[in-house]
Amino acid sequence: MEWLQQLVNGISLGSIYALIALGYTMVYGIIKLINFAHGDVFMLGAFIGFYAIARWDLGFFPALIIAMLLCAIIGVIIERVAYKRLRNATRIAALITAIGVSLLIEYTVIFFRGASPEAYPEVFANKSINILGANISSISIVILAVTVVLMILLHFIVHKTKIGKAMRAVSHDADAARLMGINVDNTISATFAIGSALAGAAGVIFGLYYTRIEPLMGVLPGLKAFVAAVLGGIGSIPGAMTGGLVLGVVETIVSALGYSLWRDAAAFVILILILILKPSGIFGKNTREKV
Amino acid sequence: MKKSKAFWGFLVLALVIYAVVQGMISGGMLDLYYQNILIQMCINVMLAVSLHIVIGITGQFSIGHAGFMAVGAYVSAIVTMKLGLPLIVAILLGAVISALAGLLVGIPTLRLKGDYLAIATLGFAEIIRIIFLNVDYVGGAAGMVVMNMTTWTYAFVAVVITILVIANFTNSRHGRGCISIREDEIASDAMGINTTYYKVIAFTIGAFFAGVAGAIYSHNFFIIQPTTFNFLKSFDILIYVVLGGLGSLSGSVIAAIFLTVVSAYLSNFPETRMIIYSLVLIIVMLYRPTGLMGTKEITSLFKFGKKGGSKV
Q1: Which site among A25, A32, A38, A96 would you substitute to test the B interface, given the most B Cβ atoms closer than 10 Å to its Cβ?
Q2: Range of A214's domain?
Q3: Would residue B184 be called left, alpha or beta, if left means φ above 0 and alpha means ψ between -120 and 50 degrees?
Q4: CA–CA separation, A238 vs A25, rounded Å?
Q5: Is residue B15 part of a domain?
Q6: Cβ–Cβ contacts within 10 Å for residue B75, how many?
Q7: Number of domains making up chain B
Q8: What keywords sit in the KW lines (chain A) (predicted)?
C-alpha cells in the first residue's frame, strides 16, 4: 500500500499549499495584486509558532492561534503601510513594491536572528496509525484536521457573514460596492487579515511537518502556492483548495518516482502549462479584455 | 545628424574612459580588488541594460533574467573548459544559445500579460536553474570550475557594444514599435504593429546580452554554481532597472554602477545591504513610481553631457 501512503503525504503537503494559496487568491481577487510578501507572512507564522512552543511552553493549539492572530495583524500593517497608496498605481509598481516588502521581511528577520535554521519542537508523540497497510503519522492527521476546520470556517465567513458578503461584493466590483455603502478599505484590510491568518496557520503546521524552519523558507512555498492559486483559477476559493491539493500530490508523486531533485521544477512546469493551455485555471471564469 | 552625433559622442566618451582606466591599471593605481569591482560594474551594467530593453522599452515585466545569465555562463564555461576553445568564441556561443533560450521561453510566455508574465518568467528561470542543478556534466550543485580569463578590456568592450546596440535599437523603427507596445498594447495592435513579433524580438535581444554578461561573469570567478543564478539575482537586476527609471537607458546604467559600488562597500554586511535595497525599492515605488530618472535620458538633463556618467 505504498501509493496510499504517498497519497496521504501528498495531501498533507497539498493542504499546506492550499492554506497559503487561499491568501493569494483572496487578495488577488479583491485588489488584483500578487502579494509576494505572503510567503514571508507564512515564514513569520512558522517562527511565531516556534517561539510560542519552544520559549513560552505553550501547547500546539494556543501557538497556532497566537501565530494566526499576529500574522493577521502583520498582514493588515503591510496592506496599510505599503499597498494602500498603490491602489491606483500601475501593476508593475504594485508588483515591485510587493517584492520589496518580501525582501524587507526576510532580511529584517535574518538581521535580528541570523540565517541559521531552527528545529521545530515535537508537540505530538509521533505515532503512526496503520490503515489498509499504509503507515499514516499522527502529524498528517492533525494537519488534515486543522486544514479542514479552517476551510469550513473560511467558507462560513465568506458566505454567511456580513464581512464575507462585503468581500464578495468588493471583489466583484469595488466601485459599485462603494456606492452601496460598503467600506472598501476596511473590507480589503479584513481580506488581508484572513489571508495572513491562514498563512500563519500554514507556517505552524509546516514547521510541525518538516521540523525545520529558516528565514528564507517562505519563498519557495510562497511561489508554489501562487502556482496552486493559478492552477485552481485565481480569485476562486474552491480553486485554491483544489489547486493546492493537486500540486501537493503531483510533487509527492514526482519525488516518489525517484526524481526528488526535479520536484521544484514540477510546480513551475505545471504553471507554464496551465498558463499556456487554460490561463483562467480550473475554476476560473474567462474574462473578456475591454478597451 | 543628431543621432549620429550622439553615437560618436558616446564612442569618444567610451574611449576616454577606457584610456583613463587602462592607464590607471598599467600605472598600478588600481589593484586587483578595484579591477574586480570594475569588471563587476561592467557585468551589472550589461545585465541592467539587457533587462531595460524588456521592461523599460517594451513594458513586458520579466523577473527571470538570471536564467538567461545562467545559460550564457554555463554554455561559455563548457566551451572554454570542456572544448578548449578561446574565450571570444565562448562569449558568442553563450550569447547565441542564451538568445535561443530567450526565443523558446518568449514565444509561449509573451502571450501573457502583467503579473502572469512575471510569474511565468520567474518559473522558467527556476526551471533553467534546476536543470543545471541536475546535470552532472556541469557539476550539479557543487558547481563547475572555470578558469579566470575575463580582463577589464573584454568586459568594457562588451558593455560598449551592448549599450550601442540597445541604444540604436531603441531609436530604430523596431524600437519605436516596442515603445508603442509599452504605451498601449491594444492601440498599437490596432495600428497594425505586430505586437507578438516585437515583444519576442526585444526579449531575445535582452536574453542575448544577458548571455554575454553571464559568459563574462563565469570567467571572472573561479567557480559557477546554480544557486548564484536564483531569483535573488533576478531581483538584483530588476532593482537596477527600476531604480534608474523604467524606460531610461542612462538611468539603468547609472543605477547599476551606483549599486555595484554600494554593494561592494556593504559586502561585509549582506543583510544590511538587502534591507537598504528593499527599503529603497519600496520608497521609490511609493513616491516616484517611474523610477529616479523616469523615461528621461541623462542627455536631456545636461545639454552637452553624454550618457555613461562618471565611472570609478
Answers
A1: A96
A2: 16-230
A3: beta
A4: 10
A5: no
A6: 24
A7: 1
A8: Amino-acid transport, Cell inner membrane, Cell membrane, Membrane, Transmembrane, Transmembrane helix, Transport
Residue B32 forms part of a structural domain: no
* Residue A288 lies inside a defined structural domain of this protein: no
Beta carbons within 8 Å of A231's beta carbon, 6+ residues apart: A239, A242, A243, A246, A247, A270, A271, A274, A281, A282
A32 contact residues in B (CB cutoff 8 A): 115
Tell me whether residue A118 is in a domain: yes
Q: What is the pTM of this model?
A: 0.84
B24 occurs within a structural domain: no
As for how many domains chain A has, the answer is 1
Nearest by CB to A107, which of B130, B231, B274? B274
| B246/A92 Cβ within 8 A | yes
Residue of B nearest to A231 (CA): B116
Nearest to B123 among A89, A91, A268 (CB): A268
Q: Is residue B271, in this structure, part of any structural domain at all?
A: yes
Which residues, listed in sequence order, are joined to residue A118 by a DSSP beta bridge?
A213
Specify the CATH number for the domain of residue B130. 1.10.3470
Q: For residue A286, tell me if it sits in a domain.
A: no
Q: What is the pLDDT along chain A (291 residues), one digit of tens a residue?
A: 677 778 888 888 888 899 899 888 888 888 888 888 898 999 999 999 888 888 887 888 888 899 999 999 999 999 998 888 888 777 778 888 888 899 899 889 988 888 888 888 877 766 777 766 667 777 888 888 888 898 888 888 888 888 888 888 888 888 888 888 888 888 889 999 999 999 999 999 888 888 888 888 888 888 888 888 888 887 778 888 888 888 988 888 888 887 777 888 888 888 888 877 877 777 766 555 544
Q: Which residues of B make CB contacts under 8 Å with A?
A: 55, 61, 63, 108-109, 111-112, 114-116, 118-120, 122-124, 126-127, 130-131, 133-134, 186, 231, 235, 238, 242, 246, 271-272, 274-275, 277-279, 281-282, 285-286, 289
CB contact under 8 A, A271 and B277: no
Domain that holds residue B272: 39-300
Yes or no: say if B211 and B98 are a contact pair by the CB < 8 Å rule: yes
CA distance B143 to chain A (A): 15
Nearest CA in chain B to A262: B130
Chain mean position to CA A168: 19
Which of B263, B285, B292, B295 would best serve as a mutation to test chain A binding (most A beta carbons within 10 A)?
Answer: B285
Instruction: Give the number of other Cβ atoms within 10 Å of residue B271's Cβ.
Output: 18
